[in-house]
Structures are given as structure tokens and as C-alpha cells.
Amino acid sequence: MRKLQRDETYRDLLRLDELLDSTLVRDGGPDRMLFLVTHQICEMWFALILGHLDEARSAILAGDPGTATARIGRLPAIMQVLSAQFDVLATLTPAAFERIRADLGSASGIQSSQWREIEFACGLRETRYLTVPGFTEQETARLVRRMDEISVADAYAQLAKQRRDAPDPGAMVAVEQLRAAMLDFDEAVVAWRARHASLAERFLGGRPGTAGSEGSSYLWRMTARRLFPDAWPGANGGTDA
């Protein structure tokens, strides 16, 4: 981690020169810039989410559900910001979207390895995503590592079982608060997926997406996925267990 200096300016603190040089804020006209910068911002949020999930998992494994709840409890608000990104993209005209789409080539949002890492870190893991065309060796290696690690869902299930086996009212309250935070995050992700699907349908209709993806039909199916299925009522980790 870079050590901050007392005399750093706002520009220095945010590394604005490096940031703006590496982004696409001046690349190809306002519509294309809007499309690309929006996706870059999403990736920055994804990185932040991953950091929070890793800290939450470590806290759960250390028997500290309070810290885990605080970390995961912030994520629904982040997902709301990410959903609002789609509202911004919806301001594009169909013609502008078609021009941008024509230039995307084989690039597709399905190639976001960080989003797959988020899913894997939570516990939603599908090996088919390890072979998505466009991932670098480093990205695939990170996903494989996530496959081998204990997930947030696994860590929660272990903690919930420990607390059920050794009942303590205060401890169980903390576990329930963590579970509620996980479900809030899960719901926020479903809302984000639905907003994405709706936007894709608005621009694509039933046409396929880029890189051979199925477009809006695929995205609508993804809204049925849950990051923490066992934390929902009636499941092993839910209150009805």
C-alpha cells in the first residue's frame, strides 16, 4: 500500500494524471466514452466488492460475524450505484448503441473476470466460466484459486452450524444479522441483474449479444441465480433449518 504524504494535493492523492491517462474519457466521442467509462467504473466497484468479501470471509472464519456484517452490509448500496450505471447507459439512443456495438468486436461483459471472482468468492461457482474466451492466464488462475478457497457461503455455513451446536442467544443474534446482510446483498445483485437484462432487451430485443453471448435471454436467466442459496429460509443455513 502506498504511504500517503502530508503535503499531497487532491490530484496527488487520487493519482489523477495516471488515472485519466489510463481511462477512456477522451476516446472516440461522447457516446463511446460514456459506454466505455461506465464499464471501467463498474470494474473499479467490482474490485472494491472483492476486497470487502475477502475481509468478510476472514472475519467469519475468525468467529467475528459483526465485522463480516459491516463489510457485507455496505455492498447493497454499491450495487444500487452499479444499477444506476445502467440508467446512464439507457440515455444512449438505439442508433448510438448500434454504432458502439459494431466496434466492440469479440469484447463482451461476460469476460469480466472480476465479476466471476465475486460470484466464486460468494460461493456461486460454475466451472464453465473458467474457459470463457478472452480471459488471460492470470485471470483464469485467480478464478481457479477462488474455486479452491473456502467461500463466504461456506464460512457462514460453518459458523451457523457451530452456533447452533453450542446455542448462545447473543451469538445467534450476530449470526442472524450476518445472514440478513448476505440476503440484502443477494437481493441487490438480483435487482442489478434484472436492470442489466432490461437494458439489453431494450437495445437488442431477442438478438444475441457480443462474443456469441445469448443477449437478454441469458441475462434474464441469471436473475434466478443466488449468491448464497443456503442462507435463504428453508435451506440448511436459514432460520427454518
Automatic annotation (TrEMBL):
One of its GO terms (molecular function) is metal ion binding. Keywords: Dioxygenase, Oxidoreductase. It comes from Actinoplanes friuliensis DSM 7358. The lineage of its organism: Bacteria, Bacillati, Actinomycetota, Actinomycetes, Micromonosporales. Signal peptide: none annotated. InterPro entries: Trp/Indoleamine_2_3_dOase-like, Trp_2_3_dOase. It comes from the Bacteria. This is Tryptophan 2,3-dioxygenase (Vermilion). Pfam families: Trp_dioxygenase. One of its GO terms (biological process) is L-tryptophan catabolic process to acetyl-CoA.
